[in-house]
Known about the structure:
The complex is a heterodimer of chains A (431) and B (108). Chain A is an alpha/beta fold and 431 residues long.
Amino acid sequence: MKQINRVRQNRSSKDFACSRIDFSQPIHFSFNGKEYTGVLGDTIASALLANGIDVVGRSFKYGRPRGIVTAGSDEPNAILQLGNCEATQVPNVRATQQLIFEGLECHSTSGWPSTRFHLMGIFGALFARFLPPGFYYKTFMAPAKWWKYYEKWIRKGAGLGRSPNRADEDIYEVINQHADVLIVGAGAAGLSAALGASRMGARVILADEQNEFGGSLLSSNIKINDRCTRDWIDAVVAELINYESQGQLLLLKHATVNGYHDHNFLTIHERCTDHLKDKAAQNEVRQRYHRVRAKQVILATGALERPLVFANNDLPGCMLASAISTYINRYQVIPGNTLVVMTANDSGYIAAIDWHNAGRRVAAVVDTRKSHASELSKQVKALGITIIYQSAVIEARRKRLNSRVCSAVIMSMDSTGDAVKGVKKLFCVTL
Amino acid sequence: MFLIHCPICNEPRSEDEFHCAGEGHIQRPLDPMATSDKEWGDYLFFRSNPRGTYRELWQHTIGCRKYFYIKRNTETYQIYKTYKLDDKSERVALDKEHSNKNKFGDLL
Lengths: 431, 108
């Protein structure tokens, strides 16, 4: 299938100077039994968006269609079952964190008989009014003697993922570490801290959950000392690798720090081969658990964007503004045709600029603030993008039951922001 | 997980290597036959379980196997000090705390 949402420009082009993908190396993988093509550096999520896939899962209760919302570990919807054979099944992996490799097989964890045509979705839409919040499908347990007949049908409609029914053949290990400084997160702050501490001669561990160092810089188009972020990251990482070869520094990619215990004891979960192959080679460790005792801990974890609340904000096509910037700048994927941005601060403007520069239309930026003059809003205006102040998106609409968002309903707010008046409708594909 | 400085080995070690033996500085009645049932019950079963400073007896089970005391905060998990059994300074401090408590009751 063609990658309809991919911008085919090489790295030398000005707008995609910080792209982290390599077009010369196409990678084939399958999603829900269908073959797709991505490129080296793609996550499953970015490859699926490039191929124009909207629906990746179903909501737990009503079976509403769900699309990719974020570009990182905060993804709530794109939760997949991975594995080419029974022994390597991994349930509930976030598509936004898993890199694609040749021959990767993944499936949606929710949705039966399929994610696209979904029995529960129809059921949920028809009977939603009879299913109050807190309703649990085990209510069907009574009368008890019928349970054995309909249990298997309800089980198919419920739950996320499945556990493998063969033993895992891979090797996993636990390792104890000691460090003067442990740095959690390798964005701009984490990398700078690692560099500073290493130069002073400290023993440092730098752990980051992503597949490469750089954190939010990887998805940003900004300049550092008049050079693009990629150059800065490469220069810093090169110096850090030099310290690593002297045995003074440990660089951990694909490593999530998952616990901060008493007296600076931290645990790190490192995924060594998950991004490369389905099953680790013989005598190769698949995942490693680090138990670290550190003298100093630096938390450079960054921040997560919070989604805005409006009706139907769970429709496929509604995404976080930061995720849109990430997909455009890092993966050269534009997840839609026309964009409406709703924002309460300046970060939404960046997404609008990125979208516009990638060559697709921005219908409007909807800002909840009264009026605002900043460097970014001037840039947005200069690009000819409409800014609607003191307004909010109150609803996202779709055409059919399973389709993605097609329009946004916008209303202006009164001075206190408590009430809305007037209706305006805009058409968009991504919000 | 605690990082405990063993005063005998004179080294910080992980909590894995230690075993906690309960509240420290509990004195056995000198004449058991002469104590009332209540005093004997207090000695055997009742512990102070405070929120704040606490003195505990620990053993370095996978190490020197010696007992020693830890003075720590049960709220913040901060370890103020570890000291050997023959260190009398904390015993004196503890007695002072007890006598203050008897004097001022629950105000402290």
